[in-house]
Amino acid sequence: MYNRKHGWLIYQEKDAADNASYITWMIEEAERAELSLELVLREEMTIGIRGGERETSVPGKEPADFAIVRTVDPFLSQHLEASGIPVFNSSVLARIANDKALTHHYMLNLGIPMVATFFYPKAIKPDIPPLFFPFVWKGTTGRGGKQVKWIGGANDWQEFRDAPIHEDYLLQACDVQLGKDVRVFVIGSEIIAAVLRENMSDFRANYKLGGTARLYELKPHERQMVDTIIQHFPADMAGIDFLIGYDGELLFNELEDVVGSRTLSAVSDINIVRRYICHIKRKLES
Length: 286
Hints:
Layout: E1 6-11, H1 13-18, H2 20-32, E2 36-41, E3 46-50, E4 53-57, E5 66-69, H3 74-82, E6 87-88, H4 91-97, H5 100-109, E7 117-120, E8 135-139, E9 148-151, H6 154-162, E10 169-173, E11 180-188, E12 190-198, E13 212-215, H7 220-232, E14 235-244, E15 250-256, H8 262-267, H9 272-285
Parallel strand pairs: 1-2, 1-5, 5-6
Antiparallel strand pairs: 3-4, 7-10, 8-9, 8-10, 11-12, 11-14, 12-13, 14-15
Helix pairs in contact: 2-9, 3-4
């Protein structure tokens, strides 16, 4: 009799509540692919070392043959991998993608174009900004348009300098088309689709912040740029976000590890979760 692989779908409790329908969708698609998948809350998990061995405890849950990590916790992913559990996405991808400074560092090595960006530890605030106004402040671990602030002039700069900063950050030029970006959805080495996101009332284009979206057809040179990224950073499922320059050129912005697919579902009938689960099954079988 066929022994189905059993996986943990790992979320933090607060995110699981917000993504209940998405979780159900993933579990149903896993069942369709003859995989077993159950929700595991990060708060339920205890990981550590005992007696010279790595240990992972999740009371009441069946041991995992694989894990889909849908929370930002690169060390958890690394611990599971070291314990022999395949993790989607990998800990390497998660560590780089969830640190904006690291992401830009590696993208520059690949020759991927980007706007001027400067990096600072949280304990340091420069007296003089490295960029002309306006520009934006971003926390290196922010997601979904959060931990992003507009610095439009001297008053905003002074307010930034007076406020406490709790994480490393970057300062980034905004000489681009504001409130507009392109998100490219990828699974493994395949480009699934691209979506143009626009927000007429905010400099951030995020769909959850009130923006609109439509499918975007990548030009050949843009596909080549995305291919370069995913050849060097293989992601099981990720989003690659690009700002749009004044002449329409794509400029790298972020690599999303725990990527959502609301925009893609809103503008197409692409079942990206089904494709993701099939990708996972193929990797497990190989």
